């Protein structure tokens, strides 16, 4: 059974579609075309006869029960607001957490309930150009809506009840922890971007070393989970940055198993909200060899990683 793009069809679709709101395979979140709250308000889909006809029981933040006369046959996306929410206002470009229950518009049967438990959905970026932005529009945390989708070439008509649960920072928010002696030092800019300093006169370790320097209290990342992260990586040999999501302007999300072994060790077993400092020797990085400027072979590499969200592939409904 196919669900709408933002409802997570599979592990791969979850990451790409939640963050982009379209069929792209790029997991980087989009840059919204507008950042003012008015843009989200203008993007919000209007209510209609189909969405207005849905009766919903249950409170925001918990699974809903929806009833309606079947079949519903909306000709365009319709969205009826059930609760405006009383939390902080949301803006385009922010990452949010949300949850939903989906129903068949043809017979009213429940198709899936997802997002109400940790590890079921990655945070997603609100944008006027995405389905999620058009469903939630502007408003406040705690908003609940009914969305009635028309049938398409790839999906039946469906009814969703969606809850806007909260906003998610783009930097780790856990409790600061002291790094062990001999580790690189980390200074954070106002926006959370790290500056990493390699300790003078110290030889790099021969095994991967991991230190949690902020301890989050969220879901624990498991092997193979998709993790939404920010990171900065520097060379041990000269302290120069070779890659950073902070420079690129957006977090990314991939399975933990997509990374080199040392980076994988820095993610798995950590909790969402944590910031991790990891030192990776060549054997668990990019391989042994002569250090040069063209690649990272032979280089001990150091990362600071902020874990912003995670999703287990097992949470995706069956297709």
Question: Over the alpha carbons, how many angstroms does the gyration radius reach?
Answer: 22 Å
- Strand proportion, as a percent range, falls in 25-35%
Mean pLDDT: 88
Q: What is the overall number of helices?
A: 6
* Span between termini: 5 Å
General form: elongated
Structural class, from helix and strand content?
Answer: mainly beta
Low-confidence stretches: 7-36
Proportion of helical residues: 10-25%
Count every beta strand, where a strand is a DSSP E run of 2 or more residues.
Answer: 19
- Main sheet makeup: 7 strands, antiparallel
Helices and strands, in order, run as: HHHEEEEEEEHEEEEEEEEEHEHEE
Give an overview in words.
This protein is mainly β. The protein has helices at residues 11-20, 37-43, 49-52, 131-136, 245-248, 261-267; strands at 55-57, 65-67, 78-83, 89-90, 95-104, 110-114, 124-125, 139-140, 144-149, 158-168, 175-176, 185-188, 194-197, 209-215, 226-235, 241-244, 252-255, 275-280, 301-311. Strands 11, 14, 15, 16, 17, 18 and 19 form a 7-stranded antiparallel β-sheet that branches. Strands 3, 5, 6, 7, 9 and 10 form a 6-stranded antiparallel β-sheet that branches. Strand 5 and strand 6 (110-114) form a beta hairpin. The longest helix has 10 residues, at 11-20. The protein is elongated, with a radius of gyration of 22 Å. The protein starts with 10 loop residues before the first helix and ends in an 8-residue tail after the last strand.
């Amino acid at each position: 059974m196919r669900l709408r793009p933002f409802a997570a069809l599979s592990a791969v679709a979850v990451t790409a579609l939640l963050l982009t709101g379209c069929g792209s395979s790029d997991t980087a979140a989009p840059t919204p075309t507008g950042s003012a709250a008015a843009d989200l308000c203008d993007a919000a889909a209007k209510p209609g006869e189909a969405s207005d006809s849905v009766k919903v029981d249950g409170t925001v933040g918990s699974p809903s029960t929806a009833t309606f006369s079947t079949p519903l046959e909306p000709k365009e996306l319709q969205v009826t607001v059930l609760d405006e929410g009383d939390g902080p206002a949301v803006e385009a470009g922010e990452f949010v957490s949300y949850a939903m229950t989906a129903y068949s518009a043809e017979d009213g049967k429940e198709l899936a309930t997802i997002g109400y438990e940790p590890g079921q959905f990655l945070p997603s970026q609100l944008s006027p150009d995405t389905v999620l932005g058009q469903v939630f529009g502007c408003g406040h945390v705690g908003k609940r809506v009914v969305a009635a989708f028309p049938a398409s070439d790839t999906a039946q008509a469906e009814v969703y009840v969606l809850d806007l649960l909260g906003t998610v920072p783009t930097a780790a928010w856990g409790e600061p922890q002291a790094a062990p002696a001999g580790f690189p030092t980390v200074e954070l800019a106002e926006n959370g971007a790290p500056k990493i300093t390699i300790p003078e006169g110290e030889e790099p370790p021969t095994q991967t070393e991991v230190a949690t320097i902020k301890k989050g209290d969220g879901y624990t990342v498991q092997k193979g989970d998709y993790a939404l992260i920010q990171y900065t990586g520097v060379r041990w040999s000269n302290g120069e940055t070779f890659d950073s999501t902070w420079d690129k302007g957006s977090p990314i999300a991939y399975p933990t198993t997509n990374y080199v072994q040392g980076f994988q060790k820095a993610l798995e077993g950590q909790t969402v909200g944590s910031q991790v400092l990891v030192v990776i020797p060549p054997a668990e990085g990019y391989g042994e060899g002569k250090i040069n400027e063209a690649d990272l072979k032979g280089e001990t590499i150091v990362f600071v990683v902020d874990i912003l969200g995670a999703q287990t592939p097992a949470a995706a409904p069956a297709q």
